Amino acid sequence: MPVTDVTTDPEALTMTLTAEFAAPVERLWQAFTDPRQLERFWGPPGWPATFTTFDMQPGGRAIYHLTGPRGETSYGSWEFLGVDAPRTFEVLDAFADEDGTPQAEMPESRMVFAFEPTADGSRLRNVTYFSSADALEQVVAMGVVEGTRMAMNQLDRVLEGLRAYAGGKGTQTEILDDTHVRITRLIDGPVDLVWRAHQEPALIQQWLLGPDGWRMSVCEVDPTVGGRYRYEWEPLEATEGERFGFDGETLVSEAPRRAVTTEHMTGTDFPSTLNDLALYEEDGATLITLVIEYPDAQTRDIVLATGMTDGMEASYARLEGVLAGV
């Protein structure tokens, strides 16, 4: 993980993040000053950022919003106070309304981003200055410290490039906290096809099968927001097991980049999970990122112990073969 430290200082009214990266300063600077790259990591998992304005010059502004897994939206804005490429830039950071106007009732802060070379790459030091102890406490209570850490820990995949970051590594599962797990898999194929393979029943039934020996007997999908889906699997004759299925609802659909759904095991009173699927294409390959929210750590561990990662890898390997023939 690149983040080495996040500390708050109530006396100095600051929050300081330090992170180390195996990339030169110029590459790190580019990631923070190109809005298309910045929005790939600025929001924490489950809350991706979208920058609609980015005028990086003193007096210019950046306006962005974060979209949560249930469709919630949080707006923010930066006013650029100074820019000294590729060493540092400084912004006035504010919570904003839909038009990007800062909200007077919410805390405003000054952020300084500093980039410096190291023996192995580069270092980011991000210091946020608050106007009062109350403002610092309010932001900490909102979970900004942990959210910032999780957001910056996504930056490696941007700096390295998708093929270097995930190519040949298969399905990777990472526990983010007690209730969240992140699964990544690089698929050799364009994002439009990978999106279709997650939305169209004729394609889904060819790859979403888990280990060999099963078939998807039911695949009903309404991918629109508020629409429902239902999957059922049954074993082939030579495979032991019982029919089972999942059903759920689509909460967010942003083709071909993001879909958020609930997932419930059909016919049981087990609690539902929240599945946040994000797709990003680079150099002809698409990174699948699936963030799953469980009701508690116990449920998370029970599901992971079923061999979920291996089953997903079998499906994703099958998906690459399906895409090659589309």
Automatic annotation (TrEMBL):
SUPFAM superfamilies: Bet v1-like. Pfam families: AHSA1 (PF08327). InterPro entries: ASHA1/2-like_C, START-like_dom_sf. Residues 23-160, 190-323 form the Activator of Hsp90 ATPase homologue 1/2-like C-terminal domain. CDD domains: SRPBCC_CalC_Aha1-like. Belongs to the AHA1 family. This is SRPBCC domain-containing protein.
